[in-house]
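A protein record pairs a chain with a discrete description of its three-dimensional fold. The following entry can be read in just this way:
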Amino acid sequence: MAFHRSALHAGFLVFDGVDVLDFAGPLEIFSHVHYGMDYTAPDPAFKLTTIGASDVISTSAAVKIIPDVSVAYARSKLDEFDILVVPGGPPSIVYALVKSNSEVLQIVKDFVRLPCEDSKRPRTILSICTGAHFLGACGLLSGLSATTHHLFLDDLRAICEREGRTEVVQARGRFAIVIVGAGIAGLAAAIALREKRHQMTVLEAAPQFSDIGAGIQVPPNSVQLLRQLGVYEPISKLATWPRSITLKRWENGANITKTPLYPRMDEVHGYPYFLIHRGDLHKVLLDRAYEVGAEIKVDAFVSEVNESASSVILKDGTVHRADLLIGADGIKSKVRKAVVTDRDVEIIQDPNCAYRTLIPGELLDRTRRPHHGVSHLQRSLINFVMCHPGSVPVGQPNGRASIDDMNERYKTWDPVICKLIALVPQCLKWRNAEIEKLETWVAKSGKVVLIGDSSHAMVAYMGQGPPWPWKTRLHLVNAWTMFP
């Protein structure tokens, strides 16, 4: 196939599974370029030829392409081409073509080896998205900076390094992210953002991770998010799957109503309803964060936040800089001062607080109806929460409560409740608090963002505490995947 040499001849390589946009976008641009150059030109600036690995190409979007010529024919006439366009496709398909040394890879190699006979008409090879993997496999990227789809940068680097001819490909589009706080929200964000290949550092003020907390309800909307984080299986094994929630009258334990949970929640919402010890949930998230490659530092107390530089200074003077700084450091957040700069955010004390305790299961017997007024956890523990008027002053930690006071407060309640209180080994008086509604969770620079209790601390309601930090994490990840 011969062409008038005044036009540059561009070949578009297509193969089964080729991405339609990778192929059609450049083809559209090339076919219209000559109009922008000279509307009166008698000949187009480019002659375009599709080169197919088979007679009919099935694209990734089920669109069929009938190529102008076969790969075999194009290889025999390759010196007639000035430009070769190599689109991408699903990584599994591209990898298979590279690994098998297919004719698709061979024509790329042949084109790379062609001599340039005319310095005024240099040969050019273009790749789109994962098409860069073909160039890497040819050693063409040696000493160059290259990129591809942001999820497959490591795969491109691996292909290039196997050839032994290429320096490490720059990972453009990845961000250095620092998260302050390794609680539930911080770890969830770390997992999700690290899975998008961002560099992740998590700073936790505590000197070590400890098994703190008590029972957490995990409703179906939270369980769905846990599956997205890749921790559904281990959590489902540690959690209790309650069959129902029963509402009883306070003075005599008479049943008022019952909400079925298992298997009802799974049938209606697609996910079950869990109860789990906070320590177990945190441990699973922590293990997952390590697994995906997040760097987690303990005893890393943040003493100062620099919003304009999106950096933090630790108490030992260490500075951590980032492209994005995430505050997941709770209701008394220090990072929040970089977002709300003109005042201290008000922490609003709820008029109610709660006694929280865990009762060892071995202390119970069937005659005491342990299902009454409590929720079961693994580890043979019973989660016991009793809300009442009162408060824990803001600024003071949740502290030990007097069991005598608890007995006195509930002495006229259902006798089963009184019997359970008699089994309580120790008790915590737990604060309920929230913060004022913030106008924004993002600093003016766009480099600092708040999640979890640092942005929207709220009082407990219907087990919806856990979903909120996970939902903000999900929105955060969705926003940052817009910048690959």
